[in-house]
Amino acid sequence: MKTALLSITCLICSLVLFLPAHAQHGPVTFAGLKDSMAVQPRPVVIELYTTWCSYCRIQEKQIKRSPTLQQLLSEKYYFVCVNAESADFAAFNEILGQVALQQLAYPAWILLDTNYRMKDFHTGLLKSGELEDWLIAK
Amino acid sequence: MYQLPVKEKIMLQYSYNRHAQNSYYGQTPYMATQHVGFTQLYWDKQLGEKHNLLTGASYRYTWYDDNTPGTLSEDGKVNMPAKTPLPGAFIQDEWSFAAKHKLLLGYRYDYDKYHGSIHSPRIAYKWAPNVDNTLRASFGTGFRVVNLFTEDHAALTGSRQVVIAETLKPEKSYNANLNYVLKIPMNNAFINLDATGFYSYFTNKINGDFDVDPDKIIYDNLRGHAVSQGISLNVDAAFAFPLKVLAGLTYMDVYQIDEDDAGIPQKSRQVYAPKWAGTFTIGYSFPYNFGLDLTGNWNGPMRLPVQRNDFRPDYSPWFLLANVQVTKKFAKGWEIYGGVKNLLNYVPEYALMRPFDPFDKYVNDPVNNPNGYTFDTEYNYAPLQGVRGFLGIRYNLYQ
Q1: Which residues is A67 bridged to in the sheet?
Q2: Which of B183, B186, B240 sits opposite A127 (nearest CB)?
Q3: How many CA atoms within 13 Å lie on the side-chain side of A128?
Q4: What is the C-alpha to C-alpha distance for residues B149 and B21, in angstroms, rounded to an integer?
Q5: Is A45 exposed, middle or buried (0-12, 13-18, 19+ CB in 10 A)?
Q6: Cβ pair B259, B223 in contact under 8 A
Q7: What is the interface size between A and B, counted as CB pairs within 8 Å?
Q8: Residue A132, CB half-sphere, CA atoms under 13 Å: how many?
Q9: How far apart, in whole angstroms, are the C-alpha atoms of residue B264 and residue B373?
């Protein structure tokens, strides 16, 4: 029992610590998210990007340079980066359910509560300060 | 476009196009009708992990009729519309032979009833060591049948007589391209740089000869070769504040080496082709949904057709055409915009030669026309409109 709990905690820690470091648009699947949510529910923040979006690259650089943002994203939330043109995005729609995403622009920020219900949605580049305020306030 | 309801990815494309022309050039009518039917079937297949195959066949049928001698029978009595079937087939493989390398090999075959078999191979290579750097190189051949009247309306609308010295053969070329894309992500900006070098060698090119006779444009086949080469640089910059900058610069060297009447090869630079050309767009979004856009394009000197002892320079000057526009967006997709075109009020200095005597009636007048100039409209290199304002409303559907 103890070893099982220890290994699960290690798994979550590695997932959670791995995610922000690799948050620079690494491959994140929903299997991983679902597992972590099952163990420790947290609100989820999803960043939708595309390979051709230049503002997404600026966003990525700004997150890298801000330790407070990295801490927020790794401790208070589960941070998921999804390529809007990949198969991951299709799996995504299933979680969001009936939520209508009108007029998508990239980077798109989606905030979900612990029950996968959409709490907030923002399109466009969010400067580090603005992003911090948005994440803290929710 | 229609995708066939089979497991394999087979697409069918088809189009039909009809053009009816009813024009008068002075008192000369030019009436023409053209029907073009096109269909293409292709199969897109992924073979294993490394090869992507594309193969297909196409058929284009062109029916063309006009009121010129070009579509009359040999004896000039029966109207014979030109009917051109053009079947073709192609095959192409995109081979990812190594992790960051891709090689494309393609071949196309067309059969034209007048020009026989046309072979068009091509090869292309791409190297992308990471997401921010990409190098591309390609080589291929070109083949084009020229239809002067439908393509070169300057021949019909200008002041000169068009002379077609012999049956025009198709234009053929060999082309090579080299391209490099560099992306620079920064904390407050993202810069996309694009550099391209191109080289085309034409074994036949149909260029109008404006130099031999000021009253004529003469079209014939090239006895020699023509070259079109150059370098183009483009910058696309996005910033963390609402500024967008686009700028481009091109250097082009276009010339031909053609034998003159004595059989001696002469090198001549292409008319109307500047060596240097540039373009820019600067856009900024202000609060309260206002936007400002500044655009411009500038050209270096280009060779222009001049007459004997012409007082006009044979090269055009450097010039810049700049425009500015302000846009205000309202709710529900409505926008109001206004601005100024040709802000610097640049107008070419010499537009028409002897516009008061368009039919050359008083040309042989040694007192008033000692150099024997004739009416000529071909000396143009920029729009003749000066600074002007504009205002408009735009409604966007689906917004």
Answers
A1: none
A2: B240
A3: 15
A4: 11
A5: buried
A6: yes
A7: 31
A8: 12
A9: 28
CA dist B241 and A33 (Å) reads 34
How wide is the angle at C-alpha B317 spanned by C-alphas B314 and B319, nearest 5°?
150
Calpha distance B377→A59 (Å, rounded): 55
Instruction: Identify all chain B residues contacting A51, using CB atoms and an 8 Å cutoff.
Output: 131
Spatial CA neighbour of B82 closest among B116, B37, B117, B33:
B33
Question: Is domain A2-137 in CATH 3.40.50.1110, yes or no?
Answer: no
- Assigned token pair, B347: 């107008």
Write down the domain spans for chain A. Answer: 2-137
Inter-chain residue contact A57 with B188, CB threshold 8 Å: no
Query: Nearest-CA distance from B192 to chain A in Å?
Result: 9
Q: Cα(B216)–Cα(B204) distance, rounded to whole angstroms?
A: 21
Spell out the residues 6+ positions from residue B286 whose beta carbon is closer than 8 angstroms to its own: B242, B292
Q: Do A58 and B131 touch (CB under 8 A)?
A: no
Q: Which one, of B64, B224, B205, B76, lies nearest residue B144 by Cα?
A: B205
pTM of the predicted model over 0.90: no
C-alpha dihedral sign at A27, A29, A32, A36: positive
Q: How far is CA B95 from CA A122, B100, B120, in A?
A: 40, 11, 19
Tens-place pLDDT, residues B230-284:
999 999 999 999 999 999 999 999 999 998 888 899 999 999 999 999 999 999 9
Question: What are the tens digits of pLDDT across the range B343-364?
Answer: 999 999 988 888 888 888 888 8
A123 touches chain B (CB under 8 A): no
Cα separations in angstroms, A73 against A64, A78, A136: 11, 7, 10
